[in-house]
Each structure stands twice: as C-alpha cells, then as structure tokens.
Amino acid sequence: MTRSSLVTMKKSLKTVVATLAAIWMMLGVLEVSAAYAQEDPFAQFPFVITCKNKGTQLAFYLSRVTEDGTATYLAADRLAGTITLDGNAKAVGDTVGGTCLGKTLEQLRASGQAHDLKP
User: What Å distances lie between residue 37 and 44, 82, 85, 98, CA to CA?
Assistant: First the structure.
C-alpha cells in the first residue's frame, strides 16, 4: 500500500468511528429521554380540562404536579382546580365550582372535557 492510500484509509476510519460515536451518544440520549417520559408526571394528566362555570366555558391548563400526585389547573380570572389520578376534581378558592367539580379524570375524559396533547 502506498502512503497516500493509508492516509485516505485512516481518514475514512476516523469518519466511521466518529459516526458510530455520534450514534451511540444519540441512543444514550434517547434512552434517557424515554426513561424521563415514563417518570414525567405531566404525561399522566390531560393538558387542558374544559368546564362550564357560571355560564362561561373555561379552559383550565395544567400548571403543576406536586410530589404527592396532585395536579393543579389554572384558568382565566385566577380560577383554579386540583385533581389526582384517582381522586375527584376540586375547586380552589371558589365554593360554587362548575361542570368539572367532583368528576374523576376518567369521567372528564369520557365526557370530552379532558384534552391531551397529541405528539
């Protein structure tokens, strides 16, 4: 083999190694992302819950999920509500509530009031 063909082969080998390293790194990132998605508490709750309150349709957006699994939803006019995976929707600061009050996530989904983000 000539010196120039060895140099060319060495460059090609470096390219292959760099490509494989990049692929392995991407696979590692994908594994971490998949693991996070399984642990992501936001993935368990709908992004928006729609309710009628005092004659007005409101969209309550998922704002936070606490360590104990309580999701807080916020709407316009500083209205809020909470719900857990196995509990009922509760109003925060408003004793009247609306069409979501007392419903479970399963009931909200069945009635078309719970909306998930589609990937």
Answer: 10, 22, 17, 32
Residue 106 neighbours by CB distance under 10 Å: 11
Rounded Cα distance between 82 and 71, Å, is: 5
Asked if 55 and 97 sit in the same domain, the reply is yes
**Same-domain status, 32 and 48:** no
Whether residue 45 contacts residue 33, with contact meaning beta carbons closer than 8 Å, is answered with no
Beta strands in 69-113 (DSSP E): 70-75, 79-84, 90-92
Q: Would you give per-residue pLDDT tens digits along the chain (119 residues)?
A: 565 554 554 455 455 445 544 454 555 544 444 444 457 888 899 999 999 988 999 999 999 999 899 999 999 888 899 999 999 999 998 766 789 999 999 999 999 999 998 76
Which run of H or of E encompasses 110?
Answer: helix 105-110
For β-strands 114-115 and 79-84, DSSP reports them as unpaired
What is the residue range of 25's domain? 3-39
Co-location of 106 and 61 in the same domain: yes
